[in-house]
Amino acid sequence: VARVGVLALQGDVREHTRILAGLGADPVLVRRPEELAAVDALVIPGGESSVIDKLSRMFALQQPIRAAIAEGMPVLGTCAGLIMLADEVLDAIDGQESFGGMDVAVRRNAFGRQTESFETTLDVPALGRHPVSATFIRGPVVERVGAKADVLATLDDGRIVAVEQGALIGLSFHPEISGETRFHERLLDRVRR
Ligand code: GLN
Prior knowledge:
Elements: E1 3-7, H1 13-22, E2 26-30, H2 33-37, E3 41-44, H3 49-58, H4 62-70, E4 75-78, H5 80-85, E5 86-90, E6 102-107, E7 118-122, E8 132-136, E9 141-145, E10 150-154, E11 160-165, E12 168-171, H6 175-178, H7 182-192
Parallel strand pairs: 1-2, 1-3, 3-4, 4-12, 5-6
Antiparallel strand pairs: 6-9, 7-8, 10-11, 11-12
The structure holds glutamine (GLN).
Organism: Microbacterium pseudoresistens
Pathway: Cofactor biosynthesis; pyridoxal 5'-phosphate biosynthesis
Subunit structure: In the presence of PdxS, forms a dodecamer of heterodimers. Only shows activity in the heterodimer.
């Protein structure tokens, strides 16, 4: 059974642990370096990236997470989690840092305010024929995709909202809120490889 950490500093941690448990994985809340060291993969939830950044430094998790990413640990980041995985963050709050790992630039809050949240369906060819139902809540958009990263999904207007690089998956939206499990399954698949 894959032990999958959910970074539990801030954000929608519980939705992710539910989906992981439903898939037969063993979800582990990660707040300390020792907890990170004991997992096979990591989910970085949605929330507020500047807060996740600040707390991860306060809890001495920033460097261990960067090292785990560099060593190839599979990581799924949703919304704020995608921001944390991006090498470059546009419209960052003063001094905000990311873990990095994905050769992409993302712009925070690219879809406007909380009240402009929306739900839509997306074609994600990598996940098969059935469209993904995606919830956007003040999500980021991917504005640059470097040579090492791949686009997994775009909106109808062409804006990039899902990317992948090796064992890293980054989503602008929240599959965990709409009950979409296939990105978590893909993460578990990366653990098995
Ligand atoms: N706007 C948030 C941020 O910049 C992300 C929103 C979310 O995770 N739903 O971190």
